[in-house]
Predict the 3D structure of the following.
Amino acid sequence: MPSQTAGLQIRLIKRTYVFPWSQFLFAEGDADEIRMTFSTHDVVISGGKLDTLLMEITSQRVIFLKEPVRAEYFTSFSEPQITRISIKKVE
């Protein structure tokens, strides 16, 4: 992966978001769930083996995340698996 990138694209099933890393505040989580906070939105990523993805996020090296359709849930068990991404606007 590249070093720092300018932004993160998150593609949900029905909508795409692009967040500049300059608005990233923090991330927290474990192997099953990661919460990312940007100045305007909260992002929750659910799945498995996400702890390695958390390190990439905190280093701002992630360019793209995709919410899988149901058929993609169980394609690989050796890498981080995203099963759901939830994005909510900060009120």
